[in-house]
Amino acid sequence: MDIEVVKRGGQQLSLKGSLNEALRALNEDGCLVLKGATSVDPASLDSSDFIKREIVLNEAVRTILFSTRNDGFRITACLPYKASLNHEVLGRDQEWEKMASVEGLVGAMCYHLGGDRNVSWIVQVDGCSRGAATGKVVEVRANGGDIFMCHHWLLRSKPFLEKEPPTEVHAIVVSYLWTGYSERGALDRRTGDKILEQFGNNCSRSGKYVVWKQ
Fold this sequence. Notes:
This protein is globular. Helices cover 19% and strands 30% of the residues. The protein has helices at 19-29, 53-56, 59-68, 96-100, 189-199; strands spanning 4-6, 12-14, 31-34, 73-82, 107-113, 120-126, 137-143, 147-150, 160-161, 170-178, 203-206, 209-212. A 9-stranded antiparallel beta sheet has the order 2-1-3-8-5-10-4-12-11, with helices on one face. By secondary structure, it is of the alpha+beta class. Strand 11 (203-206) and strand 12 form a beta hairpin. The protein has one domain (4-187): Jelly Rolls, CATH 2.60.120.620.
């Protein structure tokens, strides 16, 4: 199944038919929205049952990650959070300057957005791309079932809700870091063991790291 991709400016692409253009947009703008590419089951968030293949090893995310690098990506975080109506202060990785100086994809943050298609999400993004903050913020819009994918260096808010939904809504954030970037990326043992237990054919443990292999 093909996935619709929406660029920061709202232009729509096909992941299957316009992969190179989607990769270029991610590299230049710092983010993409993958439409209808995920599903967040709120009933599973009270335990580690939220660690599912379509979340951790999502096919659309896989297509993008492994189209940019031939080696693996460390899974560095997999955490659910309850959505709110208020956005936090915009932030980015503490090593954003170093990351932004590297050609290509160093890693990605993938926010799996909960709720159905009627649930509206917003991410505020500074227009600075790889540079210093400009204060010129644009809103990237998405819906339940979408993935907001961005570079670690992007200055952005955490996804938040446009309005109160009829039922409680959550999101799950998964972080990936290219193995060739640095020695960062240790995953907490419990989450790592759960991932390896379920997806051992696709992931491996390397010391303190859990690596998603191509």
